[in-house]
Amino acid sequence: MTTNTTASAPTTTPTTAETAAGTGRTRLDFAKSAPKVFRALIGFDAAAREGLDPALVELIQIRSSHLNHCAYCLHMHTNDARKAGESEDRLHMVAVWREAGHFFTEKEQAALALTEAVTLVADGGVPDDVYAQAAAQFDETELAHVLALIFAINTWNRVALSTAKVAGTDERRR
Fold this sequence. Notes:
By secondary structure, the protein is mostly helical. It contains nine helices and no strands.
């Protein structure tokens, strides 16, 4: 970053990562710096999605990204959901799904509740009633995949936030 210290207002030419991070330092490119780890995470993510309804996958990823304040992933997954045919009404209601339950099936509501509990696990674990609600809606294999997907998106959120990914720059399209 370059700063002009003689003018009354500094002029800067920050990189995208510097702007997002607000630190003045460039963040690493995780995919390039740890390619085996990155590929393993992609594989884990792909395996987690197997057998799950693509709309449900996006709802889970959107809700976790809301909770983690990950604009990069939220932008990516709301766009993916739209491309998969998700309605604007439902996308707008994900953050307030409990108050707008009629927009979501019982299965989706169970998945969203589980997503919240796992994403915010430090706030008191996964309550038995939330787990039981999910277990009633999904068979064991589906439930394991839902949990794995929640683990994956939480990891992706942490990668994006730690490396200062910028919303609107979906690097999968390169």
